[in-house]
């Protein structure tokens, strides 16, 4: 997820661009850049790292007079964080520039074709192909940048929110959107228009905004914006919305906390994580970033998953998938234990460190030990260019975008998606899953974003209602079985880390071996009881809980009439493939923890004693 901003109007452009980038820095901050047009030349400034590094560069520029420009703050997906890979990106002659948020899925093919046609690339990014494609389109017809952008985008597969500037039309910004957000701002007085990835960048100048929809293109000029259909070029009449957010609310897109915003970003984050990796027609999974040969994958004898916290819970779920579908023994290790054990690893073992940040000290230490042992190491990580990704043999990236809230939510479900893809990929390479089985699994994954979009608001309401009843509890027990046992652990972790309630996750079958002694009217129990292979056993455990008068919350399958008999607090969830329930059931638990913490007046985004990335032992 990156941040784009553009301005054309009566103001000096650079301060507007910088202010906009500051307000979008939550969307990505591994590099930044901007471009403006002066005396017919497109002048770029870019810097690696935080926005302050770009500002330091700009401080050295005598003065700015330009009234038009584009800016970008990057969350790297293709090409490591560096000045060279920072946006804007130019065509061969520096006559046009592009800023982009999204993923160009066919960028390899396009780059090869363009290079064969003589185009010289300077970066490792997928975005740069857009600049050269538009250059190609202009070479055929220099009458209109808008028409050239439309022609260029016909060749692009993937997602984009983009801004384009060309010195051939010095008063025009062209913007286009497909599955990445883009909003236009119309200045009330003074005259000027803006484009941005998100509303916060617009608010210092206007509250009048136009939301671009998918497959729409906008021509942005000082005196106004014209929106067209990308396919037909037909002008579209757009509603102008008035935003009444405070600047603080705006940074969270209107949500009270980053954590809540990130919970609601999960449909898009999950889509971004599997997009370009599953082929619905052929049922093929592609993970080129694995960086391991098929013969190495076919020769694997064991898999070891290493992680901490929520990432460890994701690993526990993956053990069920990998052993069921790939047929290889899987060990799951807490990284702080793994790094001090006598490790039995060799090149026949695949070690998978899982880390949102890619900087967790224990997981990084485990990664290094695995590398030293000769094991093959493929990381799962959300931050391109982070230490673990630079040291592992390969990395499967989650595309969750920056996760600001300390409690992991979208990163966790995207880790599950990445691990699910790894399962399908290994099964495909080792030939141990039929095409039909794989097709069914892919379909259940691909349906997830739309399903979650439909459910999230209801879950939010239901969890807020439950929180009213349970927020004053001192303890909580979460029970699950099978691949939902790790989700019980995750639900307990979410609750304890942001509401400070003592919560434990337990395998439901373990209750009778001790924890059942805890049960009384003051011990609330939340049980995960989807209708799956262990449902009857789970219901038996629920009966044991009920018999000891514990207050019971049940999460189960929509249509299961058995649940209402067992508890008056039942949350019905959509029926999905058994393998997918961990991803679905994790999200209401995130919302329950959020609502409980909110009612308890806790600092949801920055809970006491915690850090987003534990870079020390
Ligand atoms: C989860 O909500 C916590 N923030 C924490 O357990 C986290 O998952 C753990 O510290 C691992 O972090 P990583 O994924 O960045 O390695």
Helix content: 25-40%
The overall pLDDT, averaged over residues, is 94
Strand content: 15-25%
Order of strands across the widest beta sheet?
Answer: 3-2-4-1-10-9-11-15
Count of alpha/pi helices: 19
The geometry reads as globular
| DSSP E strands, number | 27
Low-confidence stretches: none
The structure class reads alpha/beta
What is the radius of gyration?
25 Å
Span between N and C termini?
Answer: 30 Å
| Bound molecule kinds, no repeats | 2-deoxy-2-amino glucitol-6-phosphate
Main sheet characteristics: 8 strands, antiparallel
How would you characterize this protein structure?
With 617 residues, this protein is an alpha/beta fold. The protein is built from 19 helices and 27 strands. It has an 8-stranded antiparallel beta sheet, with helices on one face. A hairpin with a 4-residue loop joins strand 16 (278-279) and strand 17. Helix 10 packs antiparallel against helix 17 and helix 16 (448-470) packs parallel to helix 19. The chain binds 2-deoxy-2-amino glucitol-6-phosphate. The site of 2-deoxy-2-amino glucitol-6-phosphate has 15 residues, from helix 10.
């Amino acid at each position: 997820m990156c941040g784009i901003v553009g301005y054309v109007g009566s103001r000096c452009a650079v301060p507007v661009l910088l202010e906009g980038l500051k307000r979008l820095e939550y969307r990505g901050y591994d590099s930044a850049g901007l471009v403006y047009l002066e005396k017919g030349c497109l002048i770029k400034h870019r810097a690696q790292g935080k926005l302050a590094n770009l500002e330091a560069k700009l401080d050295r520029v005598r003065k700015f007079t330009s009234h038009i420009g584009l800016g970008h703050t990057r969350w790297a997906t293709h090409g490591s964080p560096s000045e060279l890979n920072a946006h804007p990106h130019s065509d061969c002659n520096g006559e046009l520039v592009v800023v982009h948020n999204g993923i160009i899925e066919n960028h390899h093919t396009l780059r090869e074709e363009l290079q064969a046609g003589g185009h010289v690339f300077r970066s490792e990014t997928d975005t740069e192909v857009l600049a050269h494609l538009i250059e190609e389109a202009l070479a055929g017809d220099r009458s209109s940048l808008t028409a050239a952008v439309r022609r260029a985008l016909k060749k692009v597969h993937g997602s984009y929110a983009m801004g384009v500037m060309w010195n051939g039309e010095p008063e025009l910004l062209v913007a286009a959107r497909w599955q990445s957000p883009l909003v236009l701002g119309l200045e009330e007085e003074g005259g000027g228009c803006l484009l941005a990835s998100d509303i916060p960048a617009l608010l210092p100048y206007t509250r009048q905004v136009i939301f671009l929809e998918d497959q729409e293109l906008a021509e942005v000029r000082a005196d106004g914006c014209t929106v067209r259909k990308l396919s037909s070029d037909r002008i579209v009449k757009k509603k102008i919305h008035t935003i009444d957010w405070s600047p603080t609310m705006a940074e969270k897109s209107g949500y009270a906390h980053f954590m809540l915003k990130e919970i609601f970003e999960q449909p898009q984050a999950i889509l971004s994580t599997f997009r370009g990796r599953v082929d619905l027609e052929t049922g093929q999974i592609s993970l080129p970033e694995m960086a391991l040969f098929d013969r190495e994958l076919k020769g694997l004898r064991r898999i070891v998953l290493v992680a901490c916290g929520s990432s460890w819970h994701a690993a526990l779920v993956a053990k069920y998938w990998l052993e069921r579908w790939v047929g290889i023994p899987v060990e799951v290790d807490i990284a702080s234990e793994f790094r001090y054990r006598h490790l039995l690893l060799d090149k026949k073992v695949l070690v998978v460190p899982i880390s949102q940040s890619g900087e967790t000290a224990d997981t990084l230490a485990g990664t290094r030990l695995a590398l030293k042992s000769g094991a093959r190491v493929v990381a799962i990580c959300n931050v391109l260019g982070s230490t673990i990704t630079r040291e592992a043999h390969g990395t499967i990236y989650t595309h969750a975008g920056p996760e600001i809230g300390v409690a992991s939510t979208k990163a966790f479900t995207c880790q599950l998606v990445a691990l699910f893809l790894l399962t399908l990929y290994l099964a495909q390479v080792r030939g141990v899953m039929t095409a039909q089985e794989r097709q069914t699994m892919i379909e259940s994954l691909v349906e997830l974003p739309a399903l979650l979009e439909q459910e999230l608001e209801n879950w939010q309401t239901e969890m807020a209602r439950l929180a009213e009843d349970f927020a004053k509890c001192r303890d909580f027990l979460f029970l699950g079985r099978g691949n939902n046992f790790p989700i019980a652990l995750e639900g307990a972790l979410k609750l304890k880390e942001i509401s400070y309630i003592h919560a434990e996750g337990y395998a439901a079958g373990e209750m009778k071996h001790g924890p059942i002694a805890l049960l009384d009217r003051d011990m609330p129990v939340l049980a995960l009881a989807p209708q799956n292979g262990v449902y009857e056993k789970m219901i038996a455990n629920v009966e044991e809980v009920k018999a000891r008068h514990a207050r019971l919350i049940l999460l189960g399958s929509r249509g299961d009439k058995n649940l209402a008999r067992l508890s008056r607090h039942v949350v019905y969830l959509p029926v999905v493939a058994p393998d997918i329930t961990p991803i679905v059931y994790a999200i209401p638990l995130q919302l329950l923890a959020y609502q409980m913490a909110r009612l308890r007046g806790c600092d949801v985004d920055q809970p006491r004693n915690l850090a987003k990335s534990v870079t020390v032992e």
